[in-house]
Write a structure and sequence with these properties.
By secondary structure, the chain is an alpha/beta fold. The chain has 2 domains: 64 residues, Ribosomal Protein L25, Chain P (Beta Barrel), CATH 2.40.240.20; 151 residues, Alpha/beta knot. Helices cover 30% and strands 25% of the residues. The protein has 6 helices and 11 strands. The strands form 2 sheets. It has a 6-stranded parallel beta sheet with strand order 8-7-6-10-9-11, with helices on both faces. The protein has a 5-stranded mixed beta sheet with strand order 1-3-4-5-2. A hairpin with a 5-residue loop joins β3 and β4.
């Protein structure tokens, strides 16, 4: 079996247990039997080959066969702070940023935003991240932060983080990346003057991502593709 499964907790003493949807998919959809081998990962950067030991209604017991090599460390720790788009575009956004290696997604609360980062919306984003990581082979889950304003996002950035503000009116392409980068992407109506001022006052550099105005999710993915 080539599919990957997310563990709820790391293995202990050479054993691990799949639970919930992951266990039900392996047991009921793929009809796993004792002796079948799968790949499991913990979402924190570690993965293992494992052998099915026992199949129950909502759990699958595993024996760890071997640890898999860790992926190389990312060149840039990239966070994308973005005003969420509507509907299924949110899932697409989370999937693509996960595939590209973005470390953290920060939903922004903006005056012109069209979608709220409710608990239910964040849960859907987290599920999209899990599915994307299972598909693309990424062992570390992209984090989904609680919603923040622009001022809160820049204030919460780690010391030394380069702040970039996506702006279709900017004259320059993205600057060379630092070790840690936070990109701010506004809603389709753009940031307000007050929101832009909060970012610039914190040291954000205006950057141009493309010669045309981009949709929210396109801008976020374009930033990730250039900087990660």
């Amino acid at each position: 079996m080539s599919e990957r499964f997310l563990l709820p907790s790391p293995p202990r003493d050479g054993r691990a247990t799949l639970e919930g949807d992951e266990a039900r998919h392996l047991a009921r959809v793929l009809r796993a039997k004792p002796g079948d081998e799968v790949t499991v990962f913990d979402g924190a950067g570690h993965a293992w080959r494992a052998r099915v030991a026992a199949v129950a209604r909502d759990t699958v017991g595993l024996e760890i066969v071997a640890a898999l090599p860790a992926a190389p460390a990312a060149r840039v720790s990239l966070s994308i702070a973005v005003a969420l788009p509507k509907g299924d575009r949110q899932k697409w956004l989370a999937e693509k940023l996960s595939e590209l290696g973005v470390e953290r997604l920060l939903p922004l609360v903006t005056e012109r935003g069209v979608a709220e980062a409710t608990d239910a919306a964040r849960a859907r984003l987290e599920r999209a991240v899990i599915e994307a990581c299972k598909q693309c082979g990424r062992d570390r889950l992209m984090a989904i932060d609680p919603p923040r304003t622009v001022a809160e996002a820049v204030a919460g950035a780690a010391p030394g983080t380069r702040l970039l503000l996506a702006d279709p009116r900017a004259a320059a392409p993205p600057a060379t990346a630092a070790a840690s980068v936070l990109v701010l992407v506004g809603p389709e109506g753009g940031f307000t003057a007050q929101e832009e001022s909060a970012a610039v006052a914190a040291g954000a550099e205006r950057i141009l991502l493309a010669p045309h105005v981009l949709r929210v999710e396109t801008a976020a993915v374009a930033a990730a593709a250039r900087l990660v």
